[in-house]
Design goal:
Length: 383
């Protein structure tokens, strides 16, 4: 298809650091039909260097904007300069609150006909700003997307929205026993029951509570250990807590990994005590790997695949969480190896190859919808 005939999409995000929203953007960017769509990602710094290599191909580009939080005015001016006069068909912004209103207003000023807000969570950290902008927010977007029903209801209330699941390459997380043996040897985990957690180190993921849970469990059992994988704003704070932990010799921290499937394979139980979640891909990945999972009851039930999830309230004590962990029986290697094929239909609902088609169709539908409304408005003006 001629470049002039392609649908031009400006995808916007606060930043492109290693986090859930960035992962979703990259997964869809890597799989979208570039014969039909041209993607420009506009994101405040930091921009993860590995993401730049993903976008080094015809039809995809990344524009790094000033940091949104510390250089807000420069960020918004740079966004305006990169949207104005560029004739984008779609502006698609990812976030979790009405704070994206200003970006949507800029897109409207730049006369971008389709303006999509995409909700990724069920709460936000900037609640005051969210509350102030909420009355204006619904008037700045033309279409609403969400990673799940709970995330959509949180941000869009009674407004109609479309669910676009956080698609990814599901087969990557199929359990492999050789990976399990490799990682358990590397970290001297043989003989241990491994409690695992993968997530961004921040208040939402609640790692300090997980460390307290582990303290109670490790007080009782000598053959359990904790494997933490991730990075984020609270990384230093969390590692300081670990330094003073009574069982620090049984806590392993892996700051970042390009192969999370290896880490899941080494685990015996996945624990996610999040304060809130929109649609946690890590929980899907853990289940696909055949792991039993213990998660807070704030986590959406939409991320359910099999019957191995147990939900527990954050109002329960760390001791009660620890008891649940100690009562967990690890799944056999055989059961984990068979999990993928046994739940193939459900897992397929999250495969990026299927979901990218859903996104493409949603883009096309949104453009058609705006064109029909424009024609209708023009006819009314004539009559």
């Amino acid at each position: 298809m001629n470049d002039k005939c392609k649908i031009r999409v400006a995808v916007c995000a606060n930043n492109l650091a290693v986090n859930g929203i960035s992962t979703v953007i990259m997964n869809y960017t890597k799989n979208i039909n570039l014969n039909r769509f041209e993607i420009t990602i506009l994101a405040g710094i930091p921009v993860e260097e590995t993401y730049r290599s993903v976008c080094c191909r015809p039809g995809v580009s990344i524009v790094a904007l000033p940091e949104r939080k510390t250089s807000s005015l420069s960020y918004y001016l740079a966004l305006y300069r990169n949207l104005n006069g560029k004739h984008y068909d779609i502006f698609h912004i990812h976030g979790n609150s009405a704070t994206v209103t200003l970006e949507l207003l800029i897109a409207a000023v730049c006369r971008i006909p389709v303006r999509i807000a995409h909700s990724h969570n069920t709460r936000c950290t900037r609640s005051f700003v969210h509350k102030i902008l909420s009355p204006l927010f619904p008037h700045t977007l033309t279409h609403a997307f969400a990673c799940g029903t709970d995330a959509g209801r949180w941000l869009f209330k009674d407004r109609e929205f479309q669910v676009i699941p956080n698609g990814f390459s599901t087969e990557q997380f199929r359990f492999q026993n050789d990976l399990r043996r490799k990682i358990r040897r590397k970290y001297s985990l043989d003989g241990f029951f491994v409690i695992g957690h993968i997530g961004r180190f921040n208040s939402q993921k609640n790692q300090p509570f997980l460390l307290e849970i582990f303290r109670h469990a490790a007080d009782v059992s000598n053959n359990i250990c904790l494997l933490l994988v991730g990075n984020g704003p609270d990384y230093k704070k969390t590692t300081e807590l670990i330094k003073n932990h009574p069982h620090k010799d049984r806590i392993i921290v892996c700051k970042e990994t390009a192969r999370p499937e290896e880490m899941y394979a080494a685990m015996d139980l996945f624990v996610l005590p999040s304060q809130y979640e929109g649609f946690p891909v890590v929980l899907l990945e853990a289940q696909i790997n055949g792991l039993p999972c213990l998660v807070s009851d704030t986590v959406t039930r939409e991320a359910w695949i099999g019957n191995q999830i147990r939900y527990l309230s954050l109002l329960e004590s760390a001791d009660n969480w620890a008891e649940e962990i100690l009562n967990t029986k690890p799944f056999s290697v055989e059961d984990r190896e068979k999990f993928y094929s046994r739940h193939l239909q459900r897992i397929g609902e999250f495969h990026i190859k299927n979901n990218v088609k859903l996104l493409e169709a949603a883009y096309l539908s949104a453009i058609q919808d705006r064109a029909e409304k424009h024609i209708s408005s023009y006819q009314e003006d004539l009559s």
